Structure formats: structure tokens, C-alpha cells
Sequence to fold (100 residues):
Amino acid sequence: MIRGNLEQRGSIEKLKDYEDAMELCIQAYGEYHPLTATLLFNTAVYYEDKEDWKKAYSLYKRTLCIMEEIYGYEHPDTKVVIKALEEPQYMRIADEVEDL
Fold:
């Protein structure tokens, strides 16, 4: 986990570290755990940096689901994810998904 934070933001090595850590975290703690949510959020930020908005959106939505279950809607960490999803690029994707 620490190594992922030392890698340059947006590097493929950082993504690999997050994915490896997430796999281990889900095995050890399950999907509905704060560490899993943090890793998902960080992975979403990676994809956001790469301008892969749809991948980032899906990860933010998954993170939000976990955060709401663990912390509730009013928790500051949950609100950070909600705020990210209120950005224009994600609002457009939400509209697209809703139209399907």
C-alpha cells in the first residue's frame, strides 16, 4: 500500500499496486470495508487522471455504494465521493446510463 503512494501519480505501476492491494484486501476483509473503499477511490482517481471517465465513474459509484453502507450518507468521506460524482463529466455519464 505504501509503495503505491510513492509511485508517480498516474503511473501504471501505481495502478498495479492498487489492484494488487485491492485483491488482497477483498480476500482478507471483504468488499464492504473502509480500506477496500479507499483503494477503489484511489483507483478511480487514477482513471480520472487518464481521462477514462467511464471507468472512473464506475469505480466512484462502487465506492459510493460501499461508503454509504459503511458510514452512511452524511459521513465526510461519503460526501467526498458524492462531490466527485457531481462533476460535469460524471453527470453526463449518469444521464447516459439512465437513458439505457
